[in-house]
Amino acid sequence: MSTYQKQSTTESVKGKLPTPGSGIEIKKAICSICNPIPHCGIGAYVKDGVIIKVEGARENPHNAGTLCAKGAASRQYAYHKDHILSPLVRKGSRGSGDFEAVSWDEAFDLTADRVERIRRDSGPESIVFYAGYPKWMRPFLKRFAHSFGSPNYCTESSTCSAAASMAARLNYGVMGRPQFSKAKCLLVWSNNPFYSNTAAVRKLVEARERGLKIIEVGPLVTPLTAHADIHLRMRPGTSGALALGMGNVIIEEDIYDRKFVENWTIGFDEFRSYVKQFTPSFTEEITGVSAGLMQKAARVYAKAKPAGLLTGANATVYHTNGVQNHRALTALVGLTGNFDQEGGNYVVPPGYLYVPSGVVTRQDEFEQSRPWEEMAPRVGQDLYPVWCKMVPQGQAIHVPFQIKSGRPYPIRAMIGFGVNHRMWPGPDFMAESLRMLDFFLDVDIFMTDTARMADVVLPACTSFERSEHKFYPERYVIWTSPVIEPLGESRSDTDIIFELAARLAPGDQLLREGYEACVDWILEPTGLSVAELKKYPAGYSLKDVRKPEYRKYEKGGFPTPSGKMEFTSSILKEAGLDPLPLYEEPKYSPRSTPELSKDFPLILTSGARLPMFIHSRTFRLPWPRSLRPDPMLDINPKDAAQRGIKQGDWVSLSAPRGSINVRANLTQIVPLQYAGRLKTAMVRRLDWCDYLRDHEEMPEAPELDRILARFYLW
What we know:
Layout: H1 3-6, H2 9-14, E1 24-30, E2 41-47, E3 50-56, H3 69-72, H4 74-78, E4 88-90, E5 99-101, H5 104-122, E6 127-131, H6 138-148, E7 153-155, H7 162-172, E8 177-178, E9 185-189, H8 193-196, H9 198-209, E10 213-217, E11 230-232, H10 239-252, H11 258-264, E12 265-266, H12 268-275, H13 280-287, H14 291-303, E13 307-311, H15 322-335, E14 345-346, H16 363-367, H17 385-390, H18 399-405, E15 413-417, H19 427-436, E16 439-444, E17 456-459, E18 468-472, E19 476-480, H20 493-504, H21 509-513, H22 515-523, H23 530-533, E20 540-541, H24 553-556, E21 565-566, H25 570-574, H26 594-599, H27 622-627, E22 632-635, H28 637-642, E23 650-655, E24 658-666, E25 682-686, H29 688-695, H30 701-711
Parallel strand pairs: 6-7, 6-15, 9-10, 9-13, 10-11, 12-21, 15-16, 16-17, 22-24
Antiparallel strand pairs: 1-2, 2-3, 4-5, 4-17, 8-14, 18-19, 19-20, 23-24, 23-25
């Protein structure tokens, strides 16, 4: 008899154990709170149709039973009181939050009628289809947009990872991920996997224990810092200069991979000539990193072959000149001959939803149901030709500008999923633009500030309430089934897309066949099917998947115009832009705007991770919120002392565009700035009585969410 069977029913219910008579069943799901690559497997304990506990799925090789703070709170996420439970139609003014509940048919019919009238009057291109979070439904929304006739499928990637991806593709045509287990050195650039990809940390620490050398680059002290051999703590915004300085050392000391450079690159002579100016002392002056430490890091990375480069998805591109800065740091991979090498940055093409599993699908063909030539120019195509050549989307950054100007054609409506106007630079400008639309539909789990501006709000499900297909890098696959019934009248994002498509794109036969039929079509080259996947509720390992060989460029070249790795980009040159990865100071910095820094003498690094939060998505949850109840500013204790700021004080954080009120958190993880080169954003103390006079009482959770969302964007 098993240990489980020996326990009494009373004990098992109290302990939430799925023993006979307890009525508890463990059902398999995935956590989709963060981005698609880490989505961890979950075991959901369900009793009487209610989730009573969650834990990491032990059989899933990606997270192997572990969950981060966000995943551990996913039950609170699913059952939160702010979960929208019925379709809503706006009654009051935009942003008032005055809605009335309607039936699904009423919401769909109203949407179809309004959108169809706009299409008739202004063409299908006047409607933008936008995907924010989550990302799992993107292939279906993109196909819907193109079948409808609109070229304007846009995503938050316009303000996120697409710039880093473009940079790598300009250099190599594609980019690979580092192989921790086979590398001798790992260069980690502005990435904090302990907070942003916890499932990968186990493999990273195991590799470290086997002798992996780690070089960390970034202005903050992170959990990785304790494991790093070298930490290059540069001034924020100067990644490009630091990478060019490392390139200078590697070339001048003749420790670059001469064979790779001579046989498989173009533009090396121009690149070598350009980086000559980035001497160790000159680079130190720009970045604040000591010349000796930078030289040491460059030597370790170049000599420790094989070596991998792990970058953040967006930290190096979240400012002016971001793409060129990221090109400079990814150029180090080719310079040292670590591209598509065992233990280097190994290229495994993504098979489905960004995941490099080695499985080949038809996702790209599925998404592009209509060729670009048959549609109007995309949003931003005249201003961002390189973007539109390399990214199969419209440029979402330009959406508010085109709404305002109406040129080259009007944008009059948006069908959005998880829209967050604070993802745009100048969120106030984006909010004003959304209010100008003739029609705005937003699909979301919670009633956000952006959803309050919509004409129709449709309630989406969490990952516990829907089915989803998922590949993992470990060649693991799963098709999830709902572990609970959808709460209220909420529906999955794909159900909403297919219902809208039936009304607005009825000619797309594949969309008419439904979600599972579309997934089957995408998976057809793999030999997998939804029916087969359903037989394995917990998922299973794929046995016959072979990862691609190393150094694929030796047979087929690089997927660049020249067929080689490009230190000087052919695409940028053709567009009339400088083909070298030139370094430019951020638009606002102590070096580029010294007069401004007199009034704003500190640098604000936004977007730094906290383990329990991702953007503004989990601030409302009790467990994560309990770890940091108030919006906070991390500041070095000496910088705080200079301003009379003590731990927990409310302070006003000001930038040229506005200010917010946050609590001060004094911590050494932030570099000292008051006496050094690092300067830009102003902080002043607010006495407690000042705060109460301005606000009358402590802000409620939604207001704090808004404050934090703004804080992370400046």
